[in-house]
Design goal:
The structure is a homodimer of 226-residue chains. By secondary structure, chain A is mainly alpha-helical. The first copy, chain A, folds into 2 domains: 63 residues, Orthogonal Bundle (Arc Repressor Mutant, subunit A), CATH 1.10.10.10; 145 residues, Up-down Bundle (Four Helix Bundle (Hemerythrin (Met), subunit A)), CATH 1.20.120. Helix content of chain A is 67%, strand content 4%. Chain A contains 10 helices and 2 strands. The first copy, chain A, has a two-stranded antiparallel ribbon with strand order 1-2. The longest helix of chain A is centred in the middle third of the chain and has 24 residues. The two termini of chain A are 29 Å apart. At the A-B interface, α3 and α4 of A face α3 and α4 of B. The structure holds a DNA duplex (30 and 30 nucleotides).
Chain lengths: 226, 226
DNA sequence: ACACGATAACTTGCATACTAGTCAACATAT
DNA sequence: ATATGTTGACTAGTATGCAAGTTATCGTGT
């Protein structure tokens, strides 16, 4: 699960972007942390210009907040922005699964099934990080199945906003089981060409984050804007 | 219908962005047109840096294509990119209208009705540009009705890609009538809290562009990449 | 006349320097 | 001691110059 795009040609700006993107989404850089173009440029050994461009891109993803003549900070969580990101992510992925249910690329079926089996193993082994990896791939495979691979870029962009928040939540085995079962039901609906059912299952699946987010809002209120 | 965002604080970069965005989407700059940072900087009287930033933002919207060490061109149309943009736009707006059908902000009802009435007048008067304005506002009001104003930003981003292409198509009175009737049906579904019907009407509505786009692909093939 | 090679004129990416604006600390006055 | 004004250390936005690479033009040789 590497940064968005994983560009082929690597400019200085790309290097800075990838590094910071990772640090922010993995929460190694906490929300509210001040971060200056000059400092980052020094640590990378680049000039300010490529760093600036990377900042600009990260700001577009709502991961940085550039305040002219003041400072740039790792963007604090915002319930509003999180809601927006979840809305878009859900909208796109719902259309993906509906589309896949109606006309999917069957050559992806095997990969989906294999992924699901591995999920079961990860759940048994209580291997949370492996489960997260598989979850990431699973949703990516859904896009492939719908023949809309590009859609995962949109999903990933919006996931990033939520993922870094969920780094603060522990994933219990029970939670993993629930998510796994959702995935299972989703595949059943997909393979059964049942768009309505796939829609409903995915809605429930994506809504499961709500209580987690609410909980983090109270336990880590200092990281929030609103 | 001003450029995306209509930022409050106007930097040099913003000025360049807004200007170029308008020229590209209005097709005053044709797909494939070469455009260099230096030239643009000269005409605006700015340095290359703010222009460069504007280019970067336009490239993110797939309106420019920056080819390092070669040149930057107004991005040619691409059926693939157009399909992607339409997919995302449809996904988001479908979720918007479903959401509005289930729980809308009734204080927007009046504006929607008023807009629809004005559309009828524009159709009668065969005032195409006025109709396009109203159409833009109508879809924006839909987002407001769903209490998801932000969603229109996503829609507008993806519309831009398609809109500039549709500048090449004439809108006949008959076509306007059809679009108007779609809008009418959509509002009926919305006010009747009929999400399924709203979904279906919007799907048909957004699909009406397909033959237009196909036609332009043949008549203006030189502007296309693929 | 035509093919081919060198060169000059472009392009964007990066580095450095300067400007305008904000904020915090400190000194001064009450 | 507290309030206030000034100064200095920061910030991002902008300007300019250089480096690396591509393209097109022009000249040369056949």
């Amino acid at each position: 699960m590497v940064a968005l795009g994983s560009l082929e040609r690597s400019t200085s700006s790309d290097i800075v972007f990838d590094k910071l993107f990772g640090q922010i989404t993995r929460l190694e850089l906490l929300p509210g942390t001040k971060i200056s173009e000059t400092d980052v440029a020094k640590t990378f050994g680049f000039s300010r210009q490529p760093v600036r461009e990377a900042f600009s891109r990260l700001a577009n993803l709502n991961l940085l907040l550039v305040r002219p003549q003041r400072a740039t900070v790792v963007r604090p969580f915002s319930r509003k922005l999180i809601a927006h990101a979840r809305f878009v992510r859900a909208a796109v992925e719902l259309e993906v699964v509906r589309s896949a249910a109606l006309d999917r690329d069957r050559s992806v079926d095997a990969a989906l099934k294999a992924n699901l089996r591995e999920q079961a193993q990860a759940v048994s082994a209580e291997d949370v990080s492996r489960f997260h990896e598989l979850d990431y791939d699973f949703h990516k495979l859904l896009c492939a199945s719908a023949k809309q691979e590009f859609a995962f870029e949109i999903i990933a962009e919006n996931k990033a906003q939520v993922d870094r928040l969920c780094m603060l939540a522990l994933t219990s085995k029970e939670a993993m089981v629930v998510l796994y079962e959702d995935h299972q039901k989703l595949l059943e609906a997909l393979f059964g060409s049942d768009a309505a059912s796939a829609d409903e299952v995915l809605r429930v699946h994506l809504d499961r984050l709500t209580p987690t987010i609410d909980a983090i809002y109270t336990t880590h209120n200092a990281y929030f804007d609103d």
